[in-house]
UniProtKB/TrEMBL annotation:
It comes from Metamycoplasma equirhinis. GO terms for molecular function: thymidine kinase activity. This is Thymidine kinase. Pfam families: TK. Gene3D superfamilies: 3.30.60.20, P-loop containing nucleotide triphosphate hydrolases. Keywords: ATP-binding, Cytoplasm, DNA synthesis, Kinase, Metal-binding, Nucleotide-binding, Transferase, Zinc. The gene is tdk.
Length: 193
């Protein structure tokens, strides 16, 4: 799986909400730990939905994490360390600075595994994930199940009226939807204004 990662590489795990991105990242972390390749596990301070200091999947898996306000703080954590990999959950909340940081880390020989949304609630590219997808050596794009029609879901539909791009939420605020049901939902929201 990671035969040549010591040359550095970027891996991105993406998909809509409820597709298992955090679960997949936690699985990769367990694999690295089993192989004695110590990963630095981080998440943004903004993400406090399930825990202040852990990555938590909806299935209940969890892992202690270091919480960062700014992704550039990672450089200080890597000084005099034995880390071989960096695992970043909810990476979309770190913003555009993550693009350069991920590139620098991979160029320095680290395996950088990034998990985050590639689209916002209006199906627009959700930076920095689309840019990281273009640079990644490996991409895993997950799907959820559409809450309306039970087909494959590739979007995160926002049920609440709020125009903020970064709005933390879970099942009360968001649903996984296929493209068709997402577009029907947007149309219905416009008609109820």
């Amino acid at each position: 799986m990671y035969k040549n990662f010591n040359e550095g590489m970027i891996e991105v795990i993406t998909g809509p909400m409820f597709s298992g991105k955090s679960e997949e990242l936690l699985r990769r972390i367990r694999t690295l730990e089993y192989a004695k390749l110590k990963p630095l596990v981080i998440k943004p301070k903004f993400d406090i939905r399930f825990s202040d200091n852990e990555i938590v999947s909806r299935s209940g898996s969890r892992h202690k994490t270091i919480v960062l306000q700014n992704i550039s703080e990672v450089y200080e954590l890597l000084k005099n360390s034995e880390y071989k990999a960096i695992a970043i959950d909810e990476a979309n909340f770190f913003g555009a600075e993550l693009i350069e940081v991920a590139k620098n880390l991979a160029n320095s020989g680290y395996l950088v595994i990034i998990s985050g949304l590639d689209q916002d609630y209006l199906q627009r590219p959700f930076s920095p994930i689309p840019e990281l997808l273009a640079m990644a050596e490996r991409i895993t794009k997950l799907q959820a199940v559409c809450i309306i029609c039970q087909h494959a879901a590739s979007t995160s539909f926002r049920k609440v009226k709020n125009n903020e791009t970064n709005l933390l939420g879970d099942v009360n605020e968001y649903e996984a939807r296929c493209r068709k049901c997402h577009n029907l939902g947007l149309k219905s929201q416009k008609n109820t204004k």
